[in-house]
Amino acid sequence: MPLYIVSTPIGNFGDTTKRVLETLAFCHIVLCEDTRQTNNLLDFYQMKPKPKLISFYEENAEKRQEQVINWLKENKKIALVSNAGTPTISDPGFKLVRRCRKEGIAVFSVPGPVALIAALSISGLPTDKFMFLGFLPKKKGKKEAIFSSCLALKNSPLSPTFIFYESPYRLEKTLKLMRKVLGEAQVVITRELTKIYEEKISGTPDEVLEKIAGKKIKGEITVVFYIRG
């Protein structure tokens, strides 16, 4: 049986497609970043009976991989989901997909939302070329090196819009580092996309820092920025 890579909503459960629900109901097992989050989605749609939910996340993905491959070879129908958005994007699921390819096991996509595209689409920044940086390193030196590499592309034929995910707890420090390295870059911060408290903040790093000063930032953060030539 193939492995199904199933995208789930990035916030609003109403964004779930009919095909997503049909696929999850069809599967014997759903591999979840957090079984509680996936269970909430299935409860919202009153799915009965539910597939078996099994945890599959960064810390246990390698250990689970062999078991999952064996289940697939036993003709178990298996889906992989993340807490929100498209699995394998900044997610350990790509290693399972790579192993399936090696073993000759088919992998199918059940596409849907992904935060980086949602943020880019409403940013107002150029969308013809973009580069996704994933989650940036926690260490200042490594993060600064990435921003310097981005700056080096400013006047190149590539010159993309950049996108990355960031923790709300590190956002202020990251913006200060962007100000130091990138100067007057155009930045759009999106928070809690598709949820009740969705928020967009834009400007230069300095302007965004001023707008968030004194605020307690919470939730899922996507940062989009463009370095003008």
The CATH homologous superfamily of the largest domain is termed Tetrapyrrole methylase, N-terminal domain
User: What's the total number of strands?
Assistant: 10
Strand order of the largest sheet: 3-2-4-1-5
- What share of the residues lie within helices? 25-40%
**Radius of gyration over C-alpha positions, nearest whole angstrom:** 19 Å
Strand content: 15-25%
Question: Averaging pLDDT over every residue, what do you get?
Answer: 96
Structure report:
The protein has helices spanning 18-26, 35-44, 61-73, 93-103, 115-121, 140-152, 171-182, 205-212, and strands at residues 3-6, 29-32, 52-55, 78-81, 107-110, 130-135, 161-166, 186-191, 199-203, 221-226. By secondary structure, it is of the alpha/beta class. Helix 6 (140-152) links the parallel strand 6 and strand 7. Helix 3 (61-73) runs parallel beside helix 4. The termini are far apart.
Question: Secondary structure elements and their pairing?
Answer:
Blueprint: E1 3-6, H1 18-26, E2 29-32, H2 35-44, E3 52-55, H3 61-73, E4 78-81, H4 93-103, E5 107-110, H5 115-121, E6 130-135, H6 140-152, E7 161-166, H7 171-182, E8 186-191, E9 199-203, H8 205-212, E10 221-226
Parallel strand pairs: 1-4, 1-5, 2-3, 2-4, 6-7
Antiparallel strand pairs: 7-10, 8-9, 8-10
Helix pairs in contact: 3-4, 6-7, 7-8
List descriptors:
229 residues; alpha/beta; Cobalt-precorrin-4 Transmethylase, domain 1; Methyltransferase, Cobalt-precorrin-4 Transmethylase, Domain 2; 2 domains; five-stranded parallel sheet; five-stranded mixed sheet; 8 helices
Short description:
The chain is α/β, with parallel strands linked by helices and 229 residues long. It is built from 8 helices and 10 strands. The protein has 2 domains: 3-113, Cobalt-precorrin-4 Transmethylase, domain 1, CATH 3.40.1010; 116-226, Methyltransferase, Cobalt-precorrin-4 Transmethylase, Domain 2.
